Amino acid sequence: xxxxxxxxxxxxxxxxxxxxxxxxxxxxxxxxxxxxxxxxxxxxxxxxxxxxxxxxxxxxxxxxxxxxxxxxxxxxxxxxxxxxxxxxxxxxxxxxxxxxxxxxxxxxxx
Length: 110
Hints:
Blueprint: H1 2-23, H2 29-49, H3 55-78, H4 84-99
Helix pairs in contact: 1-2, 1-3
């Protein structure tokens, strides 16, 4: 159930991020309301996901998928391009997420 909540959080965050472009600096009411509602829902579902998933896993998944998906949305919807640095960063994320399920190092507070 935690990953369902996390998936909903990611979708809502992407919706809010996409509509940020349409707010024109929060001067347009309708898209601004979508942004506020989407981010509110995103953080609600992120908080619900944390009842089932460790924070480090949830946030890394949220951030990584969000970055790559936002870049894809910006290319498809807004016809924006991605520069070489952005492509390398996204490739690095994909490589790290897919290469190993085991942590490279652990840190414990005593």
